[in-house]
Write a structure and sequence with these properties.
single chain; alpha/beta; Rossmann fold; 2 domains; six-stranded parallel β-sheet; globular; Glycosyltransferase; glycosyltransferase; quercetin 3-O-glucosyltransferase activity; quercetin 7-O-glucosyltransferase activity; EC 2.4.1.-
Length: 496
Amino acid sequence: MGEEAPAATVSAAATASSPPHLLFICFPGQGHINPMLRLAKRIAAKGLLVTFSTTSSAGAKLVSSSAGGVSAGGNGVPLGRGRIRFEFLDDEFDGKEIDALMHHLETAGPPAFESLLRRQAAAGRPVACVVGNPFIPWAVDVAAAAGIPAAVLWVQSCAVFSLYYHAVHGLVVFPPEDDLAATFKLPGLPAMSVADVPSFLLPSNPFKSLTDAIVRQIREIGKARWVFVNSFMELERDAVDALAGGEVSPPPPPLIPVGPLIELDDGEDETTAVRGDMIKAADDCIGWLDSHPPRSVVYASLGSVVVLDAGEVAEMAHGLAATGRPFLWVVRPDSRELLPDGFLDGGAEDGHVTAAARGRGLVVGWSPQERVLAHTSVAVFLTHCGWNSTLETMAAGVPVVAFPQWGDQCTDAKFLVDELAMGVRLRRAPSLRRDDVRGAVDAAVSGPRAGDMLASAAAWSAACRAAVAAGGSSDRHVEAFVEEVIALQAKPLVEE
């Protein structure tokens, strides 16, 4: 192709007749793509042009999961008063190992992103604002070098942001990992133990490359003009106010809650035509749920990353069977071979006929989780407590059995169980046991506190929906951002 024009050297006349163009650049993980794409759609619906980008390999999966007519490049598709389109990095990486991916993104990402920005200007749609996320901190630097203002979407909770911020700036000392009785306190947060700390901040953390990226993002967060967070004021007002109220030094930029970034509608419309599914969901989940009475089904899913060993998978299988309740269990294809012998085909294991043999269990590789949680037959969600899953179960009003594994899941479980009173914990130490699975499910569905958990879940469901409804706290924050971007385009940072 010919020489590419600089990204920001665009006159006011060239852009005055067009809506501002925002470019979202996302880490290629399911837990990041979901909230980033949902924010992109909400912004587009308010009248802007939005391009969503990630690596080329992840991008191909996004296009294939969306409705017909959605493709990479081109003018995109209408959404509300605006449009959304896909265009991906020319990076040629299709690996799976996390350290290799992080190295690739750090080295190949910036030049590929620079090229992407230049292509937008050359095509007559210069980028007015870049929105990145924590695992690709270089996106803000690339935007700044091009003279483009940038935002960051923190895809976890405000509480987790506070924990990272305090740790990175040396404002907290966590108790030793073996002292689970010791507690510490930060402004705007409840008393916490080391078990509630994101595991990426602990000495035992094996995912050093991920930690390094997050630490860099936190250190340089002030480079971003806006810092969005996938939460809402009514949920985390104390944490937001404490960070903004001068109780933390150095002070972080103000957090702007714009969540929960979830799909609230069950039906198909223009907002669900563009999807962020990197794994194809099973087609039979909803029909199977339709055949069960209200609040009868145990839904179990540990997300797109968590992996259990063979012993844990077996204990989970027998524990779900032992509940005597129908269950829908997401077991990804890479873990399916770990299921006990005969579990899927109705054979016997340990002298007991499996739940699958009695027709009570459905095991799928992936599910349309938001639709599943919204179904009236679901009584409880056995979850790893990833932040997306946490917000989805809150919005659906479904109590939880919390089974966190690592990362921010540890903190999310603390809030779901202890602060929001929406469920119970499933303990893993010293090992997962089937009786504990059964006992936790029983406690959440029919135990002495089950009614209170359901009532709390229902109250938080109403709060979630109010925040993102027209005029709600998060909707107002999105509207204010859109108005600010429109005003910035009227006075471009760089003029001819």
